[in-house]
């Protein structure tokens, strides 16, 4: 007994070590896979943002290239460009023509604005304070035309932006560089308007380097750089170009706010730089999910399963070893009992290994990377419960086989009350019963994602028949879910697809196919009856379970 306890303790120690090693490996793999997925998603988003910015910068270059020695005082300079700027479909808020007017042109410009029908045609400062044009002794950058023209924007023309704290320096830089220049983020249209960015491109007079005006495009910041899928792995922010300790953040409705970054706050997982309007913009990406916590949860589940399997193995080993010791004391009167015990141990080891291999495959396939933990937990419990049910039925029949109708009991598969079963009540072998039990559970567990095409739960019919004559009899099984379609039926899991298409058919030496009709989902399985019944396995089990006669 002491030696038996030592062996069981040693097996338990090995099991604990292997469970810990498996949990550690799963933890590291989950972290690595989550990191790769996050980095890939961020690279795709940054690339899409850069493409979007490049399109808008190209629009500014095309628009500026279409001007030919314009008259600065005209108020309809965007008229020839309307078809071109809308063809790009870049979703700008306002496109504007800002003319650089000399003092002598201001009176003419006012008259032109009045003729064009703008609500406030006077030349004034950017904050609508009036200017005395008679005292102006320097060129002014005045808004002369815009697109679209609406009730909200007709009052803007006539404003001079050369002294604006953001627009003024931007226009000066665009005039000096001759390339499109982007402004700092500012409210658009009004002080409490959406936060956006203005892109300006200088229009040069033919043959000179002096700008006669600027074409500007205003874009909202949220769709320009911070647009993101609600189901994505990250949240994106824009670093304030004037203060790196602040970040522009978009909420679910697309409203932008400036968030200060305090000491001790988490840092972005990744920072990417995009180029727009002659300057670099830093995008910060924060991971939405705690990859470490998720990896720990998965590792804990793997460790718990490993410890449970270790306990089962130790319990089975202890039980078998204890019976071996007890029976060895009677070897003098029952020599034949030793042969039976050896056979039982071999068969039990064989069946335990098969069961453990199936459970290991179930666990590995169910807890794959990227699966939802709640759904995976539900499927894992259901699949193991299906295995447990078929083992119970086999144990009750001393592994002589299982009646096929017994695999449709409510304790084995979900929604058994909605399944109509038709077919001869044949007894299938242990191997076939294990495959069919998992097969029936997988089919039933994916048949109730929601209401069917007629507003009710799908009606399920399971039929089977045996055709032909011995020894060439063929087993035909057909599962059909009526009033369902690919849109209403729950999508099969990766493990389920492998089980339906490969594992179950190969276990019985047959073939399978699944498809949707106009009103139902169908799964068909065909296999030789000799593999479904497997009399060789049944004969071996009968020999093992036969009573041993005492030695005379």
TrEMBL record:
The record's keywords, sorted A to Z, are:
ATP-binding, Kinase, Membrane, Nucleotide-binding, Phosphoprotein, Transferase, Transmembrane, Transmembrane helix
Name the residues that span the membrane: 299-322
Q: Signal transduction histidine kinase HWE region domain spans which residues?
A: 347-425
Stored InterPro entries: CHASE_dom, Sig_transdc_His_kinase_HWE
Tell me which EC number(s) this protein carries: 2.7.13.3
Known catalysed reaction(s)? Answer: ATP + protein L-histidine = ADP + protein N-phospho-L-histidine
Q: Which GO terms describe its molecular function?
A: ATP binding; protein histidine kinase activity
Q: What is this protein called?
A: histidine kinase
Q: Which domain of life is it from?
A: Bacteria
Q: Where is the CHASE domain?
A: 68-252
Q: What would be one Pfam family of this protein? A: HWE_HK
Nucleotide-binding found in the keyword field: yes
């Amino acid at each position: 007994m002491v030696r038996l306890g030592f062996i069981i303790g040693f097996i338990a120690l090995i099991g604990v070590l292997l469970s810990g090693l498996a949990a550690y490996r799963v933890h590291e793999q989950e972290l690595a896979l989550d990191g790769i997925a996050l980095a890939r998603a961020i690279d795709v988003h940054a690339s899409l943002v850069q493409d979007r910015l490049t399109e808008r910068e190209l629009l500014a270059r095309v628009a500026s290239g279409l001007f030919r020695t314009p008259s600065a005082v005209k108020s309809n300079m965007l008229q020839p460009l309307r078809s071109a700027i809308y063809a790009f479909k870049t979703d700008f808020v306002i496109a504007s023509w800002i003319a650089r007017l000399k003092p002598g042109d201001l009176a003419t410009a006012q008259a032109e604005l009045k003729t064009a029908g703008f609500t406030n045609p006077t030349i004034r400062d950017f904050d609508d304070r009036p200017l005395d044009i008679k005292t102006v002794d320097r060129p002014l950058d005045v808004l002369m035309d815009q697109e679209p023209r609406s009730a909200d924007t007709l009052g803007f023309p006539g404003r001079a932006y050369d002294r604006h704290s953001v627009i003024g320096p931007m226009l000066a830089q665009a005039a000096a560089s001759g390339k499109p220049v982007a402004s700092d983020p500012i409210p658009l249209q009004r002080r409490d308007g959406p936060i956006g960015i203005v892109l300006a491109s200088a229009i040069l007079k033919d043959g000179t380097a002096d700008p006669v005006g600027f074409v500007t495009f205003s874009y909202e910041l949220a769709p320009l750089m911070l647009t993101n899928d609600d189901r994505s792995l990250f949240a994106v922010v824009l670093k304030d170009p004037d203060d790196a300790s602040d970040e522009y953040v978009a909420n679910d409705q697309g409203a932008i706010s400036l968030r200060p970054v305090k000491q001790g706050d988490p840092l972005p997982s990744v920072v990417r730089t995009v180029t727009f309007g002659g300057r670099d913009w830093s995008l910060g990406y924060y991971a939405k999910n705690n990859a470490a916590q998720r990896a720990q949860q998965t590792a804990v589940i793997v460790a718990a399963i490993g410890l449970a399997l270790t306990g089962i193995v130790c319990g089975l080993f202890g039980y078998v070893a204890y019976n071996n010791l007890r029976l060895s004391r009677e070897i003098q009167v029952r020599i034949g009992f030793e042969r039976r015990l050896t056979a039982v141990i071999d068969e039990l080891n064989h069946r335990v290994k098969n069961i453990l291999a199936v459970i290991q495959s179930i666990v590995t396939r169910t807890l794959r990377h990227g699966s939802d933990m709640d759904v995976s937990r539900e499927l894992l419990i259901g699949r193991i419960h299906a295995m447990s049910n078929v083992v119970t039925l086999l144990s009750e029949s001393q592994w002589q086989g299982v009646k096929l109708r017994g695999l449709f009991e409510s304790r084995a598969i979900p929604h058994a009350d909605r399944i109509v079963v038709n077919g001869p009540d044949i007894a299938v072998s242990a191997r076939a019963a294990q495959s069919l039990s998992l097969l029936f559970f997988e089919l039933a567990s994916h048949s109730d994602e929601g209401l069917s095409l007629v507003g009710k739960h799908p009606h399920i019919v399971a039929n089977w028949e045996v055709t032909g004559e011995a020894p060439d009899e063929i087993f035909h099984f057909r599962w059909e879910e009526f009033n369902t379609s690919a849109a209403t039926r729950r999508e099969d899991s990766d493990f389920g697809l492998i089980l339906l298409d490969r594992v179950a058919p190969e276990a019985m030496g047959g073939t399978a196919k699944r498809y949707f009709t106009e009103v139902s989902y169908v799964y068909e399985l065909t296999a030789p009856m000799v593999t479904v019944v497997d009399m060789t396995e049944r004969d071996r089990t009968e020999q093992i379970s036969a009573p041993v006669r005492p030695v005379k």
